[in-house]
Amino acid sequence: MQTTPTPDYRLARSIGLTVLLWMAISGLGALQTYSDNLRGGIASSYPSLLLTWFIEYATPLIVLCVGLNLALARRPAMGAGPRQVIFLGIGLILLFQPAQWAYIAWLRGYLPVAGWPEAGQLLMKMLLVGWFSTTGTFAAVLALHYWRQGQARELAWQRAQTDMLALRLALEHQATQALRAQLEPHFLFNALNAISALVRDGDKALALGGIGRLSELLRYALAAASRDSVSVADELAFVRDYLALQRLRYGARLQVTIRGDDAALDRVACPPLLLQPLVENALRHDLDCRPGDGDITLAFAREAGFLCIRVSNPASDGVGANPGAGLGLANTRARLALLDPDAALVAGREGARFVAEVRLPLNGHA
């Protein structure tokens, strides 16, 4: 498992890289001095020049880098804004730069000084030493600090987004499970009602046939309950079996028309047990609410990147709604929203019929 480096480890690594960088700069500076001495006919030793460069020039700047890194790591507010950066710059001028001059003067044998006139001459001699390298180092450390803060914020944002996505998926999964927990007992209740009607009518042979069909329907319902989606073709096959069970109850009164079903429906996904509640709703508000034959239609059509499924039944004026229990269309809308934000269910009267239309995105299929 990959672990995230600790702040102390990152700081130690930064200090190590700083030392290596200044060693490389010292090597280049010593090489340039050695080359100039050769051209000027001055005898010199490269290792001695390298040591001088490192001790005289690199060491103070390494101290500056390490000190700034430690200060900014322990107290990030020190570089939080322009005012803080100005204060850091003033401290650099008043504290570090004089200390660097004193250090170089000591190495070169300029110290101690005999009096104030000699101290003034030494100050003028050292006044221009180290400004460029010191300010450049200061700017580089600040830039690196701000880059690290940006990386940390980006990483924190990505982790927050990942956590939010994981939470959202978990909530959607829980919502799906809750909706299924409602739907499965509801389906079983209504299927058993159909069989109980046959038993009350005294038709034991049909009732036994209905129990056999119900076992097949339950097998599909249990298998589909463990999946997030199924194909529309599977759902239509399930609805045909469900209608065959209901036909044992309603007989020839149950008239259903299915249009537009073809092999392409096998490539379109939908939530499990999507169509059965819509067909059941049509049954309850058709055959259970009026005499005569039923008139339920299922139509499948492709429109502008969607598969449109229309379930319709007569909506006669003056006929009361069936008082049976039902989950309603809100459950179906919620399950569609969990499958795909573009999926939708629209229901309402269209003239003399009640129509429930499901729109499923094709997403390049069918």
Written description of the protein model:
The chain is an alpha+beta fold and 366 residues long. It has 2 domains: 7-160, no CATH class; 164-361, Heat Shock Protein 90 (2-Layer Sandwich). It is 63% helix and 11% strand. It contains 9 helices and 7 strands. The strands form 2 sheets. The chain has a 5-stranded mixed sheet. The chain is rod-shaped and about 125 Å long.
Structural class: alpha+beta
Largest sheet: 5 strands, mixed
CATH topology of the largest domain: Heat Shock Protein 90
Distance between the termini: 42 Å
Can you say what the CATH homologous superfamily of the largest domain is? Answer: Histidine kinase-like ATPase, C-terminal domain
The overall number of domains is 2
Poorly predicted tracts of residues: 320-326
Task: Assign a percent range to the helix content.
Answer: 55-70%
Shape: rod-shaped
* Widest beta sheet: strand line-up: 2-4-5-7-6
* Order of H and E elements: HHHHHHEHEEHEEHEE
Number of strands: 7
Number of H- or I-type helical stretches: 9
Q: Give the amount of beta strand, in percent.
A: 5-15%
Alpha carbon gyration radius: 41 Å
Write the layout of secondary structure elements.
Layout: H1 7-40, H2 46-74, H3 82-107, H4 116-126, H5 131-200, H6 204-225, E1 230-231, H7 232-250, E2 256-259, E3 269-270, H8 275-284, E4 296-303, E5 306-314, H9 329-339, E6 344-350, E7 353-361
Parallel strand pairs: 2-4
Antiparallel strand pairs: 1-3, 4-5, 5-7, 6-7
Helix pairs in contact: 1-2, 2-3, 2-5, 5-6, 5-7, 5-9, 6-7
